[in-house]
Write a structure and sequence with these properties.
Layout: E1 8-11, E2 20-23, E3 34-38, E4 41-42, E5 60-67, H1 71-74, E6 81-87, E7 96-104, E8 109-120, E9 123-134, E10 144-156, E11 162-174, E12 180-185, E13 188-191, E14 210-213, E15 223-226, E16 232-246, E17 251-271, E18 281-282, H2 283-286, H3 296-299, E19 308-313, E20 319-321, H4 325-329, E21 336-364, E22 367-385, E23 390-395, E24 402-408, E25 414-417, E26 423-425, E27 433-451, E28 454-474, E29 484-488, E30 491-495, E31 506-509, E32 511-536, E33 539-550, E34 558-571, E35 575-594, E36 602-623, E37 626-644, E38 647-648, E39 663-672, E40 678-687, E41 690-691, E42 699-700, E43 703-715, E44 718-725, E45 733-735, E46 750-755, E47 760-768
Parallel strand pairs: 3-6
Antiparallel strand pairs: 1-2, 3-4, 5-6, 7-8, 7-47, 8-9, 9-10, 10-11, 11-16, 12-13, 12-46, 14-15, 16-17, 17-21, 18-21, 19-20, 19-24, 21-22, 21-23, 22-27, 23-24, 23-26, 24-25, 27-28, 28-32, 29-30, 30-31, 32-33, 33-34, 34-35, 35-36, 36-37, 37-38, 37-39, 39-40, 40-43, 41-42, 43-44, 44-47, 45-46
GO molecular function: siderophore uptake transmembrane transporter activity
Keywords: Cell outer membrane, Ion transport, Iron, Iron transport, Membrane, Receptor, Signal, TonB box, Transmembrane, Transmembrane beta strand, Transport
Domain TonB-dependent receptor-like beta-barrel: 317-727
Length: 769
C-alpha cells in the first residue's frame, strides 16, 4: 500500500514485518522518518517497528498520506511523512458485514471478517479482524500463525460529535528473512551455487530451538533459547478513547487517547553478521588455522595434540576431516560454509498517547480560516533483552544443516568437540540489556487560510522530551562465587553453565545486573509554512518550507529542513499531473552499528545529508476505460560531515548515503471493465542503483519488477481479486550486509545482500452482506 504513495520507497524483503520504508529526500533503509498512524494517532511513538503490530484488514476504510511539511507538526516523529490508516466507522443505519478469504502460492492462508450494526438510536458497534497462517514468502518448514481483532463502540451526540471506545488485541507469529549469499556473474547479481536466491531460505529444522548460554543475571539457569520456529512473536493489547464535540457553531473540542501494551520476541537469522562477506568461504578455509578461517579464535582453543580439524553434521552425525578435501569441496555442491548469527531480541513495552485540543472554523464571503491547537503527551517505556546473540557454522543451502567443529588426531578420531552443538561464539552483540523511558509533551497549532484562490497554511509544534536510558553494564569486580573470571586485564565474563559442550569458557560480554544511567531533557520546535495559488481553473502553483525533527530518545535530535515548490495542471479527463522540485537539509542522522572487528562493540555514526531532486506524478486517461498513472523521483543525495564515535572520518564526503536510490519510477496501466465489472492492471516499478555502505564500496544494481492483477465484481456483493508479483523472476537487492560496517567489500566474488523474492501470485474472494 505504501508503494502507492508518490515519493515513498519500500523495501519489502524481510517478510510480513520489519520491512524498510523511506521517503524521497531522506536516507533509505529505515522507518524512522515515516510515522504510521491509525485514526490520527501513531501506532508507536517512535515510529519504527509499527508494522509488528499493525496490518491492513477489513476494519480499515482508507489510507491518507502527508509528506513533509505539516506532517512533522501534526504528529511526533513523522518529519518525513505520515501514513494514516482510517478505520471504518460503525454503521448506525443497518447491520452490515464483510468476509474475505485469501490464499497465495507460497502458503499464505487468511480469513478476514467485519461486522457492524446499530444497538440503539445513537449507539452502534463494529468488530473485525483476521486469522492467518503462513510460512512466509520463502521456503520454510514452519508455518507461522496468529490473529488480530478490533472492536469499536460509538455513541453519537444529538447536537453533533461522538464518543468512541475501541479495543484491539493481537497475537501474531511471522517469518523473518535477512541476508542471503550472492555472487556476480558478468556484472549481474545472481544466486549462490546450490541456493535459489528467489525462493530458498537457509533457516529451517536445524534452527528450531537452540539453547544459548547467557549471564545468570539475564536468566537464572544461565540458558536462553533461540526459537526460529517462532519467528517474530508479536503480542499487543490496546484500549482507546476518541471524543469530539461541538461547543459552538464554529468551535469543536477533541480528545484522542490510547494505551498500548506490547511485546515482541524476535528470533531472526543473520548470515554473515559480524564476520561479514569473509565468513562466506570454503569448508577447507574454515578448518585451516590462520586468518583465512572465520573461526580461527575457536580453533586456537583446540588441544595441543590436535592433528587437524573436522566438521560433524548435527543432523546426520556424518564427520568430514580437513584432509578429506574432495568431500569438503563437494559439500552441498558448492563446498562452502558460513557463519550465521542467531539474533534473539525481546522487547516488553507500554506506549501511552494523548492528543487533546480544539478546532475553530471561521467563514465569510471569500474568506475561510481553520485553526487547530492542542497538546500531545506520550509516555513510553521499553525494556529490551538482546542477550544470547550467538553464532553457528552452517552450510550454504536451503534448510541448511548446522555443524560441530571437532579436533581430530592423525587417524581422524575425535579428541575434542570445540563448538557447543554448533555454537562457535556467545554474546556476539554485547550483553544486550537496555531500557528506554521517554516522556514527551508537545504543544502545537496549525492554521489553514483561504482567500479566494489563495490558500496559506502554517503550523508550529514545540516538544519537550525527558529521556532516561539504562544500559546494562558488563561484569566487573564481581566475586568468584558468581562464576566471574577475568579473561584479560579489566575484562570480566561469566563462565558457561556446568555441563556446557565445547571449549568456549565464558558466555561472552556478561550483564552484571547493574546499569549505566543517562538522563537528558531537550526541547525542539518544528514549523512549516506553505502557499497554494490557483492561477486558472486548471493550473496551480505552490511552495513550502518545513523545519522538522525526530527526537531519538537520548541520542542526538535529527533535524530535517525541506524546501519544495511545484505546479499542478489538469486538462479535462485526459491529463493531470504535478511536478515538484525539492531540497532537503538533513542533520544528525544518527544510529548505532556493530563494529565489524568486534561485533560486541557498538559504534555510533552521525552524518548530515544534502539532497536535491524532482518528483513527478502524472495520470493520462485518453479514453474512459483506459488510464496510465506514473510516478517518478530523481534525486541527488550526498553525505557530509560523517563521524564515527565522534571522530570525523575522511573518504565519505560527497558519497551517496547507504541504501538510497537516485532514481525511482513506477508506471501503472489500468483497463476498466464495462458495466462496473472491475479492472485489470499492470505495474512496473524501477528502483535505481544503491550502495550497501556509506563508503560506497559495494554497489547494488538497479532493478525493475513487473506485476499484474485484476479485480472483478462477480455480483453486487461478491468480488474476486488476483495479483501476481515479479512475474519475470527479476533479482533485486535492497540492502547489503548492514552489520559489516560502513566500508564494505565483495570477498572473492561473493557477498551477502537482502533480496526480493521470485514470482508470487494469489488472490482473495470478498463477500459483502
Amino acid at each position: 500500500m505504501l508503494d502507492l504513495v508518490p515519493g515513498i520507497f519500500v523495501e519489502g524483503t524481510a517478510g510480513e514485518a520489519s520491512n524498510n520504508y523511506s521517503v524521497r529526500g531522506l536516507q533509505g533503509g529505515g522507518q524512522r522518518f515515516v510515522q504510521l498512524e491509525e485514526d490520527g494517532m501513531p501506532i508507536l511513538y517512535g515510529g519504527g517497528g509499527a508494522d509488528f503490530f499493525f496490518q491492513q484488514d477489513l476494519t480499515i476504510d482508507r489510507l491518507e498520506a502527508v509528506k513533509g511539511g505539516s506532517s512533522g507538526v501534526l504528529t511526533v516523529n513523522g518529519a518525513g511523512a505520515t501514513i494514516n490508516f482510517i478505520s471504518k466507522k460503525p454503521s448506525f443505519d443497518r447491520f452490515e458485514g464483510m468476509a474475505r478469504a485469501t490464499y497465495f502460492n507460497y502458503g499464505l492462508k487468511r480469513a478476514d471478517l467485519y461486522l457492524s450494526a446499530p444497538l440503539a438510536e445513537n449507539l452502534a458497534f463494529s468488530i473485525g479482524g483476521y486469522y492467518q497462517s503462513s510460512p512466509g514468502v520463502r521456503r520454510n518448514p514452519f508455518d507461522y500463525d496468529g490473529y488480530r481483532v478490533k472492536a469499536m463502540l460509538e455513541y453519537r451526540f444529538d447536537d453533533g460529535g461522538y464518543l468512541r471506545l475501541s479495543a484491539k488485541r493481537g497475537d501474531m507469529d511471522t517469518a523473518y528473512y535477512a541476508s542471503m549469499p550472492y555472487r556476480y556473474d558478468n556484472g549481474d547479481p545472481t544466486g549462490f551455487p546450490g541456493l535459489d536466491p528467489q525462493r530458498d531460505n537457509i533457516g529451517g529444522d536445524a534452527f528450531r530451538n537452540i539453547r544459548v548460554p547467557v549471564s545468570t543475571f539475564v536468566d537464572r539457569d544461565g540458558i536462553r533459547d533461540f526459537r526460529y520456529k517462532d519467528g517474530i512473536k508479536s503480542v499487543s493489547t490496546q484500549g482507546r478513547i476518541d471524543f469530539e464535540k461541538p461547543v459552538t457553531d464554529t468551535f469543536d473540542v477533541f480528545l484522542h487517547g490510547r494505551y498500548l501494551d506490547y511485546s515482541y520476541d524476535f528470533n531472526g537469522l543473520f548470515p554473515g553478521s559480524g564476520t561479514g562477506n569473509g565468513g562466506l568461504t570454503s569448508a577447507v578455509n574454515y578448518l585451516t588455522r590462520g586468518s583465512g578461517s572465520p573461526i580461527n579464535d575457536l580453533l586456537s582453543l583446540a588441544p595441543t595434540n590436535t592433528a587437524r580439524f573436522g566438521i560433524r553434521n548435527l543432523r546426520t552425525g556424518a564427520l568430514i576431516a580437513a584432509n578429506q578435501t574432495a568431500q569438503l569441496n563437494a559439500l552441498n555442491g558448492n563446498g562452502f560454509l558460513q557463519r550465521t548469527t542467531l539474533n534473539h531480541d525481546r522487547v516488553d513495552a507500554h506506549d501511552l498517547g494523548l492528543n487533546m485540543g480544539g478546532r475553530w472554523e471561521y467563514k465569510t464571503d471569500g474568506f475561510t480560516n481553520s485553526l487547530t491547537a492542542g497538546v500531545m503527551y506520550y509516555d513510553v517505556l521499553r525494556k529490551q533483552n538482546q542477550s544470547a546473540v550467538a553464532s553457528v557454522v552452517n552450510d550454504v543451502r536451503n534448510n541448511s544443516d548446522i555443524y560441530d567443529i571437532v579436533a581430530l588426531d592423525a587417524a581422524n578420531n575425535t579428541i575434542a568437540t570445540l563448538s557447543d552443538n554448533g555454537l562457535v561464539s556467545y554474546g556476539d552483540w554485547g550483553n544486550g540489556i537496555r531500557q528506554r523511558h521517554d516522556n514527551a509533551v508537545s504543544f502545537y497549532a496549525n492554521d489553514e487560510l483561504a482567500i479566494g484562490d489563495l490558500r496559506i497554511d502554517g503550523g508550529v509544534r514545540w516538544e519537550n522530551i525527558q529521556s532516561t536510558a539504562r544500559d546494562g553494564l558488563d561484569a566487573a569486580g564481581v566475586d568468584a562465587a558468581n562464576n566471574i573470571v577475568e579473561i584479560r586485564p579489566g575484562v570480566f565474563q561469566q563462565r558457561v553453565p556446568a555441563g556446557t559442550a565445547g571449549v568456549i569458557p565464558t558466555v561472552g560480554p556478561t550483564f552484571a545486573g547493574q546499569y549505566a544511567t543517562t538522563n537528558r531533557s531537550r526541547s525542539k520546535i518544528a514549523w512549516t509554512v506553505g502557499a497554494n495559488y490557483l492561477l486558472t481553473p486548471n493550473f496551480a502553483i505552490y511552495a513550502r518550507y518545513a523545519d522538522g525533527f525526530q527526537t531519538n530518545s537520548v541520542d542526538p535530535i535529527t533535524t530535517i529542513k525541506l524546501y519544495e515548490a511545484g505546479a499542478r495542471y489538469q486538462y479535462g479527463r485526459l491529463f493531470s499531473g504535478s511536478v515538484t522540485v525539492f531540497r532537503t537539509l538533513f542533520d544528525n542522522q544518527n544510529y548505532n552499528f556493530a563494529n565489524p572487528q568486534n561485533p560486541a562493540q557498538q559504534q555510533n555514526i552521525n552524518a548530515d545529508l544534502r539532497t536535491k531532486g524532482i518528483e513527478i506524478d502524472v495520470a493520462v486517461r485518453p479514453v474512459s476505460w483506459f488510464s496510465i498513472d506514473g510516478q517518478a523521483v530523481f534525486q541527488d543525495p550526498t553525505l557530509v560531515n560523517l563521524q564515527i564515535d565522534g571522530a570525523t572520518q575522511s573518504g565519505y564526503e560527497g558519497n551517496r548515503p547507504e541504501r538510497t536510490p537516485a532514481t525511482l519510477w513506477t508506471v501503472t496501466p489500468t483497463i476498466r471493465l464495462p458495466n462496473g465489472w472491475g479492472d485489470i492492471y499492470g505495474r512496473y516499478k524501477y528502483v535505481g542503483k544503491i550502495f550497501a555502505d556509506a563508503g560506497n564500496g559495494v554497489a547494488l544494481p538497479g532493478y525493475g519488477v513487473t506485476s499484474v492483477g485484476f479485480n472483478v465484481n462477480v455480483g453486487e456483493n461478491l468480488q474476486i481479486g488476483f495479483n501476481a508479483e515479479n512475474i519475470f523472476n527479476v533479482v533485486g537487492l535492497t540492502e547489503g550486509n548492514p552489520r559489516q560496517g560502513q566500508t564494505q567489500a565483495i570477498t572473492d566474488g561473493f557477498f551477502y545482500a537482502r533480496g526480493i523474492v521470485g514470482p508470487t501470485y494469489g488472490g482473495s474472494v470478498t463477500l459483502r452482506f
